[in-house]
Amino acid sequence: MSAETRLARRINRRYTSTSFWAICQVADIAKLENRSPLQNQLRTLN
């Protein structure tokens, strides 16, 4: 495995975990407010 590939994998792994953490934060905030955009959309459709 080349050094570039190793570096890319490390960056990708860190980026992925950060994205996951950010998504969790958004989900927690939506839960606290008890109104996620998706739920509002579903309510509008029904």
Order of helices and strands: HH
Give the structural class.
mainly alpha
The average pLDDT value, as a whole number, equals 75
- Fraction in beta strands: under 5%
Number of helices: 2
Shape annotation:
elongated
**Poorly predicted runs of 5 or more residues:** none
* Radius of gyration, in angstroms, nearest whole number: 17 Å
The biggest sheet amounts to:
none
How would you describe what is shown here?
Helix content is 87%, strand content 0%. The chain contains two helices and no strands. The protein has 46 residues and is mainly α. It has helices at 3-33, 37-45.
In brief, what are we looking at here?
It is built from 2 helices and no strands.
Mind sketching the topology for me?
Elements: H1 3-33, H2 37-45
Summary keywords:
46 residues; mainly alpha
